[in-house]
Amino acid sequence: MPDDQYASVRYLVDDVDAAVAFYTDVLGFTLLSRPAPPFADVVRGPLRLLLSGPQTSGARATPDELAGPGRNRIHLVVGDLDAELARLREAGVEPLGDVVAGPGGRQFLVADPAGNPVEVFEPAS
């Protein structure tokens, strides 16, 4: 795969299997590779999400004060936010708070199994 085929984001996760299942089964990503037990990468369109477990070099290189979920998040665009919210709830995933509306559209957040936030967004018409 060419290096510039995807924009990659690394999420530190404590359970790679649970993260892979969440992103593939619930959010529609495709497993790209699983070269070693503490690591996998999944893709959705041009986004490559690196799921790095505690034993990976990516996790070990993160200073303790920066480890864990934060305000940064991936942003997934959907055509029907209400339908996506219903689908996620049916899959057992509850939003982190209410749907928020602004001039650009509506959104809500969910958390992956490690607590990393994922924004689900519907642009304004």
Automatic annotation (TrEMBL):
<keyword id="KW-0479">Metal-binding</keyword>
<feature type="domain" description="VOC">
    <location>
        <begin position="5"/>
        <end position="123"/>
    </location>
</feature>
<dbReference type="InterPro" id="IPR004360">
    <property type="entry name" value="Glyas_Fos-R_dOase_dom"/>
</dbReference>
<dbReference type="GO" id="GO:0046872">
    <property type="term" value="F:metal ion binding"/>
</dbReference>
<dbReference type="InterPro" id="IPR037523">
    <property type="entry name" value="VOC_core"/>
</dbReference>
<dbReference type="GO" id="GO:0046491">
    <property type="term" value="P:L-methylmalonyl-CoA metabolic process"/>
</dbReference>
<dbReference type="InterPro" id="IPR029068">
    <property type="entry name" value="Glyas_Bleomycin-R_OHBP_Dase"/>
</dbReference>
<protein>
    <submittedName>
        <fullName>VOC family protein</fullName>
    </submittedName>
</protein>
<dbReference type="InterPro" id="IPR051785">
    <property type="entry name" value="MMCE/EMCE_epimerase"/>
</dbReference>
<dbReference type="GO" id="GO:0004493">
    <property type="term" value="F:methylmalonyl-CoA epimerase activity"/>
</dbReference>
<dbReference type="Pfam" id="PF00903">
    <property type="entry name" value="Glyoxalase"/>
</dbReference>
